[in-house]
Amino acid sequence: xxxxxxxFVFTSDMAYVINGGDKPSSRFHDFVDLCCQAYNxxxxxxxxxxxxxxxMLSCGIPELSDLEDLKYxxxxxxxxxxxxxxxxxxxRLIESSLGSxxxxxxxxxxxxxxxxxxxxxxxxxxxxxxxxxxxxxxxRIRDVFLCRHERVFNPSKGYTYVVKVQxxxxxxxxxxxxxxxxxxxxxxxxxFPSSLLPSFPSRFVIGRSxxxxxxxxxxxxxxxxxxxxxxxxxxxxxxxxxxxFFHPLPRDEKAAGTNPTPKP
Length: 264
Description:
The chain is mainly α.
């Protein structure tokens, strides 16, 4: 078992490919999440691995020849740690492997390590929502449908997406940007494994498509995303983040008062 000075080979070039560029992306967050899940799954079988490796001590493998080599494996798997502690440990290994790139990705890895196992008093919230809403306070959501996209110029140029939200005795319309959809997905990943969440559309555009064509494509992809989200497992579909996201904000009520009623 080779004792490299770096925990493992994970270079800035690898991080560049995962992120799709120089800047940190949600895909890197997914990568760290999956690595930590895999590490914790392996740790649960530490003694099995040690027994199998112990049978190989007499096979003449130079780097697996005595009890010190087995101790090295034991120390690396840290079976005495909780899953939360092991996640923190492993994300720090990723950070140290990245070297100089670590500072650029610091937010992502520490966000995962420190927030994924926090208690209910520190659960993530949406930065654009002034308060938290719940299934109990807002009423059960029966259906959502992304009606259309609109060009906006304030506070910055871009597009918003108008979502029709159907509750038992009420229909409301909310406007959200692509970045706000992405924030919702990122915060959900802090609470739930990726296997429970629908895939989120990529923010990267291939080719020369821009503007209206990109917004139209994203409208279809985001509509599929929110449909799968509210039909996900109850712990996801009924969580506070989802209900807060689909609750009208003051800006939605203002827009409803100045614009014609959105068509479904």
